[in-house]
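[worker-b] picked up task from shared queue
[worker-b] task type: protein-ligand structure
[worker-b] ligand name resolved to zinc ion; SMILES cross-checked against name lookup, match
[worker-b] sequence length check passed
[worker-b] input payload:
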Amino acid sequence: MNKPFSKEIVETLHKKLINEERDILARVRELKADDPFSNPDHVNDNAAIDTDVREQTGHDTIEAQVISLEKRLFQIQAAFKKIAEKKYGTCENCSKQILLARLQLVPEARYCIDCEKKFVK
Ligand SMILES: [Zn+2]
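[worker-b] inference finished, payload out:
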């Protein structure tokens, strides 16, 4: 059984996660503001077909980015929960401790490297 991370380490990573969450939320807001579908003129604009296609493509690209950011957000929030439950840094699959170097790179990591490899095919 590994020694759990010190309070200081968890606090440092917690701060990192808070910053990341804030950045992602800001990015999602920016993307949504850029979405042609959120333009109030869009609905009645009677635009030419090519404009509609461009708007659709823009909307799809933005939506895909928002979805991937929201997935990360979800993982970050799961990490906050683990910190609160004092389980932060343990693999959700095998319960082994996740390497600190990995958490410093990906503080929201839920699995150790070995398990992550099994999941990502
Ligand atoms: Zn594992």
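[worker-b] attaching auto-annotations
[worker-b] The two ends are 28 Å apart (CA to CA).
[worker-b] releasing lock
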